[in-house]
Amino acid sequence: xxxxxxxxxxxxxxxxxxxxxxxxxxxxxxxxxxxxxxxxxxxxxxxxxxxxxxxxxxxxxxxxxxxxxxxxxxxxxxxxxxxxxxxxxxxxxxxxxxxxxxxxxxxxxxxxxxxxxxxxxxxxxxxxxxxxxxxxxxxxxxxxxxxxxxxxxxxxxxxxxxxxxxxxxxxxxxxxxxxxxxxxxxxxxxxxxxxxxxxxxxxxxxxxxxxxxxxxxxxxxxxxxxxxxxxxxxxxxxxxxxxxxxxxxxxxxxxxxxxxxxxxxxxxxxxxxxxxxxxxxxxxxxxxxxxxxxxxxxxxxxxxxxxxxxxxxxxxxxxxxxxxxxxxxxxxxxxxxxxxxxxxxxxxxxxxxxxxxxxxxxxxxxxxxxxxxxxxxxxxxxxxxxxxxxxx
Length: 392
Known about the structure:
Structural class: alpha+beta
Radius of gyration: 21 Å
Largest sheet: 5 strands, mixed
CATH class: Mainly Alpha
Oligomer: single chain
Helix content: 40-55%
Shape: globular
Order of helices and strands: HHEEHEHHHHEHHHHHEEHHHEEEEHHEE
CATH architecture: Orthogonal Bundle
Number of helices: 17
């Protein structure tokens, strides 16, 4: 079986490919991407726990190539300590557990407002009408983006993600460049504005941030904001979409949830394991290393498949079964250690509030069709459309 994640059919359903890799080629050379794909839980866990062996240096920038919207500076996820430590400490201040918990009331307000617009409609699209606008509004308010630019921000974010599949069509590449240039121009304007007109928002805090007498340059702030924008909306949109899909495809599990609202947090952890919003992350081996009997040379690219690791039968019993009672807190959906997902707690809070409102405060819903479309990203996974209608 040829595992090539650049192919649409592989991205549409990677799990049979993962199963083959785990059994027959747990460290597999992906010719199309010139990197090693690592698929078993123990090996992926080893990678994420050893950043001194598997480096993040220039992974994101190299991956985006000439479509990188900020090529002048490294992305935070491309950095290793001590440079990563400096920037992560600054950004962590905006995503403390206390500050994220304080957002819960606002997230509930937004969820209620979005769902109230759907009442009385014959049908609606879960992604377009709910799971996409919710995190876009939340992350835009955190950053301090003016409301009239929210749709632009989502379009710019989507364009950056589309670049990850390395499009060859010149028309599409030109469109991505136009969108990311517009995003960069807007952020340059906002950063300059915040220097003279500060507000109570994250962009202002990043502009004003200082740690050990080191401030962030305008380009570093732009790269950070783009990263937060992408991670802050795409992950949650896909988490909500994947959750609803899993429930609709498993009515017996849906019935268990309907009978016990307190299962929502466990549901979220199971979806993160079963069909997570992020399927793989890139690293670079900084020294010769052996995994699963395969030698990986220093300098080689490594694509660790946390989406596969979370379905590894060596780790989880009956891993292809969706089970809302499983509560797998040791899944690798958000990574581990210094590169643990910055917005993990925010995604969990948003998903819990959104699913509470959607599943328990609205009439039951059903799919209007078995057809739906998936997003275009290489390492991200979730529905791009999901038509539904309220059953009553």
